[in-house]
Predict the structure.
Amino acid sequence: MAKKKKIIVIGGGFGGVFAAKTLEERGRGLVDVELINNNNYFVFQPLLPEVASSNISASDAVVPLRQLLTKVQVRQARVMGIDFKTKTVIVMQGARMTPVELKYDELVIALGTGVDLARIPGMADHALTMKDLTDAHMLRTHAIGCLETADVTTETPVKDQLLSFVVVGAGFSGVETAAELRELIRNALPYYHNIKPEEIRMYLIEYAPRILPTFPAELAEYATKQLSKSGIEVLTGVGTESATATGVALTNGRIINSSTVVATIGNGPHPLVQTLGLDMHWGRIRTDRFMQVPGQEHVWALGDAALIPLNDNPGEDPADYATQTAQFAVREGYQLAGNVVAKLKGEELKPFAYKSKGSLASLGMSKAVADVYGIKLSGMFAWLLWRGFYLSFLPGFVAKFRVGLNWMINAIMPPNIVQLRMRPPATRYIHFWRGDKVFEPGMLIDGFYTVIKGSFKLTIDNPDTDEHFEKVFGPGEHFGERVLVKSELRTGLVQALEDGLLLFIAQKDFTRFATAFPTLDAYFKDYIEETFGGPDKAFAPGNIDQSELEKTH
Amino acid sequence: MAKKKKIIVIGGGFGGVFAAKTLEERGRGLVDVELINNNNYFVFQPLLPEVASSNISASDAVVPLRQLLTKVQVRQARVMGIDFKTKTVIVMQGARMTPVELKYDELVIALGTGVDLARIPGMADHALTMKDLTDAHMLRTHAIGCLETADVTTETPVKDQLLSFVVVGAGFSGVETAAELRELIRNALPYYHNIKPEEIRMYLIEYAPRILPTFPAELAEYATKQLSKSGIEVLTGVGTESATATGVALTNGRIINSSTVVATIGNGPHPLVQTLGLDMHWGRIRTDRFMQVPGQEHVWALGDAALIPLNDNPGEDPADYATQTAQFAVREGYQLAGNVVAKLKGEELKPFAYKSKGSLASLGMSKAVADVYGIKLSGMFAWLLWRGFYLSFLPGFVAKFRVGLNWMINAIMPPNIVQLRMRPPATRYIHFWRGDKVFEPGMLIDGFYTVIKGSFKLTIDNPDTDEHFEKVFGPGEHFGERVLVKSELRTGLVQALEDGLLLFIAQKDFTRFATAFPTLDAYFKDYIEETFGGPDKAFAPGNIDQSELEKTH
């Protein structure tokens, strides 16, 4: 009996999952299929905004890959590289990230796309995204946190910033995210006694002249009306120029102060795909009509990562190629699997051809817009259709039943406003506009700052002595060393003199880090002597409270 | 109309919640109640092990405080201190942790207990706990991660360590956690094709001569049999001596290699309670029979944090005092609320008296042990009773309905094996036993190490040149600087020459940190020159790839 061929599928999204599943079914006895994904579950991305709003729970928007693909080997690992010559995929797996080399006979690339917000200063550091489950979770946690804090805040500018929410990009994802965020807040608000509905401000920002640019104009108009009616200010024909810790600046000069900015723009190539050296266009891997990668005998690509021509003479018109949607990815998966098996059997391959059945976008509040088989629908019927459509996509009866049942239960339950906070990052870049305050006297010391760009002025006024101290910090200089001194609250005010960038290091990690460098001892001993007047007040590395360390070690 | 009295309740557990709720009901028109908690939800702690096993979802084990206490002001904040003289509570709230001072007329302390694992070296750094929702979530994520990695691991010692699970402490929490963990793995295993059931090893470790020491002996025996039958090795009369990244060492000399150690021991006073300067015993705040704190005119305490006498002559017998259970906390809450209102009205206070109705412990797999009203029960009936009991505790019909319904649904659904990973910490302390490997050649560079205690030997063997390099590092010295050089994989092996402790700093944060200290420039420039032979290979601070930084900023 001939040895089975090893097919490796990289990527567990719509394309990868349906390709792997079909490959196993149609290639039984002929192929061994392995699917590699960095998460052990398949994300039903269109449902992510509903996870963010708690309309459905996270477990209803994902399906464990092992339950989807029971006969396929599933490997949770991160692909580090591909050696096309030796037909090897190098992955890292496990908690210690040990490298493993996997040989393949045929390789299917289904990595999807990545996020690239580099074009807009500050966006990468300050905007939330809606690409995966962690994103949906983070948005929910963050939004609820804003409500919690606003409920006990009396300072109006701070409260306003907490209660302003901005979604950038009004394609499907942006519209659905804005709608669901609106619903989350609307449902949670009755529990926050000190927040009035009129204090909430929501914005949806779109660069194109209208939202949902790929939709028929009249549906986009209906959608705009619905969103506006629900309290979302829709701004079209305007883009985002920059983002900071306190909000976004738009291309028309307007500044919106907000603690919550969600970026649904910035689709770019997957970082690994960029390194493969394959022929790319528009950030996607060029394939032939059979989804093979030209010049690579055993490599195939599909889904958002691929640029698959729909006819024999594709030009520069995007309509000549498969669109980056779930519908297309699923059909490509079926087709590609058939082609791989055909190739291995020496049979003829089929060119990919598919016409979109339509589009759907949810507007929350049991309304949606749909353009299906040319028929335009809106309102609740479209919404039910949307729900039914995505339910049908869920693989397996069990998943359909559970999600459907949970939808019904959630409709009658009070909203889930539980805030599960996650560990904040130890280091992060924070952007500031001129005039922004970094910290003020009385605030809890949370960390240490280094200037990367710009200049920042520290002012300390001692109320008891009329003493006034000022200092300006530029790139490479640092402030906030009080984390090393046994004090809890800031004594000074730091303000940005120009647009700038700081690197923030959280207190606990900074203190630990300082202990890791005895060489910094001398540096800090001097610094603290000068700045604070003496080492006995200091919690500096050389002076670290050994008893504190020994207590737990 | 007389001004209402302000009552602040600190802590949103059983005691705090029932006290606040009853205070508001019985003191209407007389008091304004505010409850402060660091999370915005009430945790149903006995259900946490079931959250860890995905038997129930996180949202079924918690209830948002605002939905529980609709007429009480809920504040999500961290209490930093209490000034009894000025009757002020100082809290930090919001993302920037701004301090706020709150005045009270009466204060109720319901902070519960804290975790103190300091007595066992390594436990605090390496053991998971089961105190709150994040813990349950982390245990589940971690356990599934172990299965995922084990499924694609062929090295037997590594696989064995991944598939060994240890629970320390066999009181209610430990027994329920071990049982639920067993169930999680049992249900998930069919999806992991490369793991055989016999490769799983589970241990429950108890220092006392038997598990469930507060239970009647025959029930504890039944429980032990059930746990053993389900594959858990129950070890009694033995404690844990130390823990490291690779397992635990027991007091009888045995070492169990395991990637998953859960500590359900280590109950200690809440960190804030320790700082209040109140009269404490056994780590709990002494109160009189009315739950007032002696010597403090307006301070009350209840729940796990308090030591409430049950008779007029309490001695050193724990039975003279209220036990630290949910049952007692709830009754104390009712009673205390009545007493506070009585005090404000000038009426008589009631001494606290209550007799436990019994105890219940779940053993997973639809079995439990119960000692209720003196009647001993075991098996499925006890389990249904356990379920019913805790369902009755859930405040509000809606919560009961939802949890009950979800229990039924989950009974027929496939297990939720979705692994939602959380951001790992940027810095952490890692303990090692003599002989343990820190890293080996070929492993992905993940960070940088400093020696805190012990000594570690680095060995580099160059296969091409027969070159052999060795170096020993002691406290204050560091290794792993390859994070600064543009290389991806370790080239050397580091092993612990004696039991020791390292501080690990994750790569990304370390690199960012190094850029924050231009003063480290000179230090690293020299170091890299010596160690790696040249700065052009180095990613050192002075040489940082400016283009990389500018790309995103």
